[in-house]
Amino acid sequence: MGNKGSTMKRTLGYFAMALAGGLMATFLQEGLRKDDGVVHAAVDSTVRPAVQLVNMPSASGMAMESLDFTGAAAKSIDAVVHVTTEATVQQAPMYNFFWGYQQRAPQQVRGAGSGVIISDDGYIVTNNHVIENADKIQVILNDKRKYDATVIGRDPSTDIALIKVQADGLPTMSFGNSDDVKVGQWVLAVGNPMNLTSTVTAGIVSAKARNINILQYDPAKDIFPIESFIQTDAAVNPGNSGGALVNTAGDLIGINSAIASTTGSYTGYAFAVPSNIVSKVTRDLMEFGQVRRAYLGVTISDIDQDMAKSLDLSRLNGVYVKEVLDKGAAKAAGLKGGDVIVKVGAVPVDNVPELQGQIGKFSPGDKVAVTLVRNGQEMVKDLTLLARSGDEFTAEAKEISLPGLGAELKPAGTDELRALKLENGVKVMRLSGGKLRSIGIREGFIITKIDQVPMRSPKDIQQALDGKRGGVLIEGVYPNGMRAYYGLGV
C-alpha cells in the first residue's frame, strides 16, 4: 500500500511538471510570434529596427515606382527599325576527284540587324557590319511599313554606316550628348534581337571608353579603328546591332554594336558607339559621302604604375605621348615626346580610348585646345587638327561616295601608282551592294581607264558614266599587279 501511494505521488508529480512545461512553452511561443508568422531570434526592442530594415516593403516599392522607362521607350521605339539584308557570297571551289577544282554557284546569304532614323526624310544610321557587302537592304518600321534602302556611306573605322529610304515624315530620334553619360545611370537598348522586333531592355552604363579590339586595322583600306565604346549591361543579342542605346529622356546616346560573349549570345556585356562620334560620322557621310577624320599626329599609350615609375611621371592619369610625328598637328603646336595629355578642350582624358573618342569628334581644320603636363608643369597648346596625310582640307572631300555604283572612290596614291608603274588611277576603297560589286570588282581595284579614257579622280568616273547608254569597258589593276577588265551596263 505504501508503495502504491508513493508511485501515485510520483506520477502526479510528473504530470504536474509536464503540464507546467507545456504552459510555459505555449506562453513563450506566443511571446515570440510576430503578426507576419516569422519567428525571430529575439523580441528585444533594440533588435526590431534591424528586422524592419530587412523587409522595407514600402521603401522598396517607392524606389521601383521611380524607375519608369515607359516615356523613354515610347519616344524611341518608333524611330528604331528592323534592317534586313541579302548578299551574294562566292563559295570556294570544290575539289572533284575526276575534274579537279570546280567553281560552285554563288550562295545567297541573309542577315538582319537594326537601325535608327535620324531625319524625317529617311536617313538611318546602323552598323557597318550590318550592311557590309549587302546587295539588297530593306528597312521595316515599327508600324510594319517596308522600304528598300540605299547606302550613303560607310565608316569601318567606327563601324558606322548611313543608309537612306525614300520616305517623308518618319519618326526620328534626337542625339544626346554622350560626354554627359555617367557610369551607373540607367539606359535602354532598343532593337530587334533574334528577329524579335521592337524589343526594349533596360540596364545601367557599366563603363565608358572601352577598347575591345573588335574593329580591324587595315591601312590599305584607310581603316584606323576608333574604339571608345559605352559598356552596358542592358541585354543585347544578335539583331540588336545598329539599334539604339537610349537615356531615360529618350535621347540617343549610342549605337549598339557588339557583345562580349563566349557563347555568341548575351552574357552581361554589351558595347555601343558613343552618340557624339555617331553624330560626327553621319554628318560627314551626308555631306561628303565619306568621313573627314582628324589626327593629332602622335603615337600614344596608356600610363600604368610601372610606366609612371620608370619614366618618373608624377601622375597616373592622362595619355603618354611616345613620339610626335613629322608634319602633324602635334608637331606644329609644339608637343614633344614625353608629354602627358590630360584634357581635350574641357574634357579630361585618362586613357587612349578616351583621347581617340574626343579627337574623333573633330574634322581636319578644326582648332582644339589640348592640356598637357611636361616636366610636372601643366600647359595648354592650341592645335589645328590635320588629316592623316598632314593636309588641312575642309572644303572638299578627297574621297567621294557614288551610291549609284555602290562604291567609295579615291585617287590612287603616288606610292601605289609608282609601285604598279601607273600614270593615273582611281582606287575603289569600299563597296556596298551596287553595280561595281555586281560585275565582280573587288575593293582595292584601281580603275585606270573607262572606254580608253584615263581616270584620275572620282569625278572623272562620274563624268565618264553620266549620259552613257548601253555599256562601258572598265580596265584597271589590283594591288598585286593583276590586270582586269569589266563590262558595266549603264
Give the helices and strands, then pairings:
Blueprint: H1 2-32, H2 48-55, H3 57-66, H4 70-76, E1 80-89, E2 94-96, E3 100-102, E4 107-117, E5 123-127, H5 128-131, E6 136-140, E7 146-155, E8 160-165, E9 186-191, E10 199-210, E11 229-232, E12 244-246, E13 252-259, E14 270-274, H6 275-288, E15 298-302, H7 305-310, E16 319-324, H8 329-333, E17 340-344, E18 347-348, H9 352-359, E19 367-374, E20 377-384, E21 400-402, E22 407-411, H10 414-420, E23 426-431, H11 435-438, E24 446-450, E25 453-454, H12 458-465, E26 471-477, E27 483-489
Antiparallel strand pairs: 1-4, 1-6, 2-3, 4-5, 5-8, 6-7, 7-8, 9-10, 9-12, 10-11, 11-14, 12-13, 13-14, 15-16, 16-17, 17-18, 17-19, 19-20, 21-22, 22-23, 23-24, 24-25, 24-26, 26-27
What does this structure look like?
The protein is an alpha+beta fold and 490 residues long. The chain is built from twelve helices and 27 strands. The protein has four domains: 31-66, no CATH class; 68-291, Thrombin, subunit H, CATH 2.40.10; 298-384, Pdz3 Domain, CATH 2.30.42; 400-489, Pdz3 Domain, CATH 2.30.42.10. Helix content is 23%, strand content 33%. The strands form five sheets. Strands 21, 22, 23, 24, 25, 26 and 27 form a seven-stranded antiparallel β-sheet that branches.
Terminal CA distance reads: 131 Å
What percent of residues are in strands?
Answer: 25-35%
Using the coordinates shown, work out and report the CATH topology of the largest domain. Answer: Thrombin, subunit H
Count of DSSP strands: 27
State mean pLDDT (0 to 100 scale).
83
Mind telling me which CATH architecture of the largest domain this is? Beta Barrel
What summary fits the major beta sheet?
7 strands, antiparallel
Number of helices: 12
Helix content: 10-25%
Total of domains = 4
Q: Roughly how many Å is the radius of gyration?
A: 33 Å
* Uncertain residue ranges: 23-65
Which CATH class of the largest domain applies here?
Mainly Beta
Shape: globular
What would you call the structural class? alpha+beta
